[in-house]
Design goal:
Elements: E1 6-8, H1 17-23, H2 36-50, E2 56-60, H3 64-73, E3 81-86, H4 89-100, E4 104-109, H5 118-127, E5 133-139, E6 141-142, E7 147-148, H6 151-160, E8 166-170, E9 189-193, E10 205-209, H7 211-214, H8 229-236, H9 247-263, H10 265-285, E11 289-290, E12 302-306, H11 313-324, E13 326-330, E14 339-343, H12 350-366, H13 375-386
Parallel strand pairs: 1-13, 3-4, 3-5, 5-8, 8-9
Antiparallel strand pairs: 2-10, 6-7, 9-10, 11-12, 12-14, 13-14
Helix pairs in contact: 1-9, 2-9, 5-6, 9-10, 10-13, 11-12, 12-13
């Protein structure tokens, strides 16, 4: 099909041309004397994205799932209790991993479409007088439902209970796109991956670790080999890795960090919020609802759009892909067929997103959803026009005068 595939899943995201060029490298010796000139600054500058002064950043040739595992197996022991809420596919997957690693998980069952239940976390922590709970697992942005939860509120609950449990946060679809403050919020383990806000291909599991979490390493007894932070720490101290890193992805990550810092993280977050608000205006104009049940939980990186009764969300996604070359996110697990997801994160602007919204409109209409043609696109346009940054006044060149029409020539006299 001619033209470009319109990628509007919530990860992987579009890779900017600058990053693609940076990754286009001949292979190098990752044991060479020059390699630390690449690796050491990347590890240092990742801390700026996490917003941590005291924490340490680690990079694994893996995915966000690998960083999940590294967070758990380097800080906990078999049988340790952890506290987690289940309110979407990705919170469920982290719980499943913890259980399979041999941890005991106290699960707070929560309706999908709601945020993490901080009040129930607080009750459980207050009741744990013996401090048997060793870690809290907290999903910042639940991609399956388009829900963002309050990490700062979770830290307040821990502090109010005077509870020493580690705060482990899944920020895979938030870090680099939504405000995240590792030090200010007392996050001990911050998990993310390369293919979302960092605008890279999948392949890097990235982990931020506080000094408190690092202090648990020696006493932690869960098995670990590939994800051993001790091996990483020793090699990273000299600018190397304990095994073969992905050279192209490291060069791409260097460029990604530069892009984020050049735009300014606060500007990145504001851009994502504005794009998300335009998308939400479109959903409202369609007469549809988001899976997220309250505005306080609306995600700025993905909108999960509920389809009307009698419509299969999977059909909308299939039509969008096969007929219009548009990739939309699917409903997962218990939300399968009930919704489709529009990812609006990473390297993105208004005109790009308008294309995704237009394609979603056409696919919905083809699938039988009764919406007014162009209604969502128009609503998003008006929101973005209304909230666009004001243009700097500049003097425009004077308009050239209209050319004067030539006077008609006099006709010669015709003899009678």
């Amino acid at each position: 099909m001619p033209g470009r595939n319109f990628l509007f899943v919530p990860g992987p995201t579009n890779v900017p041309d600058r990053i693609l060029r940076a990754m286009h490298r001949a292979m190098e010796d990752h044991r060479s004397p020059d390699f630390p000139k690449l690796a050491a600054p990347v590890l240092r500058d990742l801390k700026k994205i996490f917003k941590t002064a005291d924490g340490q950043a680690f990079i694994f040739p893996a995915s966000g799932t690998g960083a999940w595992e590294a967070a758990l197996c380097n800080t906990l022991s078999p049988g340790d209790r952890v506290l987690a809420a289940r309110f979407g596919m990705f919170s469920q997957l982290w719980i499943d991993m913890a259980q399979r690693l041999g941890l005991t998980v106290d699960i707070l069952e929560t309706e999908w479409g709601e945020g993490a239940p901080i009040d129930r976390y607080a009750e459980a922590l207050a009741a744990d007088k013996a401090h048997a709970i060793k870690a809290v697992l907290f999903t910042h942005n639940e991609t399956a439902t388009g829900v963002t939860s309050d990490v700062a509120g979770m830290r307040t609950a821990l502090d109010d209970a005077k509870h020493p449990a580690l705060l482990a946060v899944d920020g895979v679809s938030s870090i680099g796109s939504i405000d995240f403050r590792m030090d200010d919020w007392g996050v001990d383990l911050a998990v993310t991956g390369s293919q979302k806000g960092f605008m890279l291909p999948a392949g890097l599991g990235i982990l931020g670790v506080s000094q408190k979490a690092l202090s648990k390493y020696e006493s932690a007894k869960l098995n670990r080999v590939f994800f051993d932070l001790g091996d990483m720490t020793k090699q990273n101290a000299t600018g190397y890795f304990p095994y073969t890193p992905s050279l192209p992805l490291l060069y791409g990550l260097r460029e990604s960090i530069d892009l984020l810092l050049e735009e300014g993280l606060d500007n990145v977050f504001a851009r994502h919020h504005r794009l998300a608000e335009g998308t939400r205006a479109a959903v409202k104009a369609w007469g549809l609802e988001l899976c997220a049940r309250q505005p306080k939980w609306y995600s700025d990186t993905v909108s999960a759009v509920m389809v009307p009764a009698g419509i299969n969300g999977a059909e909308v996604i299939d039509i969008a892909y096969r007929r219009y070359d548009l990739a939309l996110g699917a409903g997962l697990a218990r939300m399968a067929g009930r919704l489709f997801r529009i990812g609006h994160l990473g390297d993105l602007n208004e005109l790009m997103l308008l294309g995704g919204l237009a394609g979603a409109e056409m696919a919905m209409r083809d699938a039988g959803v009764k919406i007014e043609p162009g209604s969502g696109v128009a609503a998003a346009e008006e929101y973005w026009r209304r909230t666009a940054p004001k243009l700097e006044q500049r003097e425009l060149p004077a308009r050239a005068p209209e050319p004067q029409a030539a006077a008609p020539k006099a006709r010669a006299a015709v003899p009678a």
